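Hi everyone,

Forwarding the result from last night's run.
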Amino acid sequence: MMKETVLKSVHQALGARMVDFAGWSMPIQYRSVIEEAKLVRRAGGLFDLGHMGRVRIAGADGLDFLQRLQTNDAAKMAPGRIRYAMILDQQGLTQDDILIYRYPQADGFFLVINAGNTRRDLDIMAETRKGFGSVEIIDQTDELAMIAIQGPISAQVTSKITDIDLASMKYYTWQEGKICGQKGMM
């Protein structure tokens, strides 16, 4: 059975062509690919990333666990920063690319992993976790939505739906706040 993002009914109502992508029912296009690319470059486009893996890492040994799990020095990450890294298996071989988010106002980290590799990456995390004491690996993929907006009007549109000061954000940073009146991360 294919998984569905929380936006599937919206995609269908808008006439999206839905396909199986890594076990998820995902929209591939609404109009022609050229027309959509031009629209995003001219104005903007919203993308459903609900199929991506979303994992919270918590616990007193979470940082040490991450230092073993991936290629970046997570200890050097300031709160609210994001880093690109590679997840490693038990032999230290690269298995996937990931994004690591350090929580802005709390301890812990948040990982975004590729949809097609979510199960395998979670298995690698579980195996790596065995060498550490207090580490929680919390798979939030099914409980959190994830979208991206691109294009020249992105900041203008997004600023109308959030209480986060977008102008204060630098490249590869994130904040927690309200988005459409709901608690979220941006």
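The longest strand covers residues 94-102.

Cheers,
N.
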